[in-house]
Predict the structure.
Amino acid sequence: MTVDSFLLQATGLTCAIAGRRLWENVSLDLRPGEVLGLVSPSGTGKTLLLRQLGLLDSVQSGRIKFRNRTPAQWTFPVYRTKVIYLSQRPTIFPGTGLANLQHPFSLAVHHQRTFDLGQIQVWLAQLGRTLDFLERPGTELSGGEAQILALLRALQLDPHILLLDEPTASLDAATTLALERLLLQWLQQPDKACILTSHDLSQIQRLSQSQLNLQPFQP
């Protein structure tokens, strides 16, 4: 497979906090349609790797490329629309769930996109929810409901890569499976891929075609 065939490539990434190195020289290649599972013990910095890939934290060393171009070549705002990180505890803004979904379209980087309530309704139905779900204040949602809202908020922006940090940690078993089905359906579209962390190793095995074992730094 040629370099141009990869959606995302990372080479030689390193993470250190307060002078303590968590991991170093991490590299990965992500292909269209692929789910890459990150596996390692708790506290080894899986979240920090996802945040670096999403450019929410600075890249301390090494480089990242999306479609063989650096984030700077895309411009950072555009890169972040193509590679979206979802936290285990996502930020929900004041206002209703509907207002939270509409908020991204007020940003200049999304000015050419239009909010599609019909598509949101389809996704909600797949997750066992109705439009009433969007009438509730976002700040009153449970942890699992906030994860659902954040996923829909990301999907509607049509990213190429989702960086999912424990995306079903607060969901019940039935909703977890429904969300997995929705994610796999999304991956059937051209040029979509995902990197996933989960404490549920069976979920990693169900969803991912390959795994990256993040090794703690050994001085």
Q: What stands out?
A: Residues 97 and 134 are 4 Å apart (CA to CA).
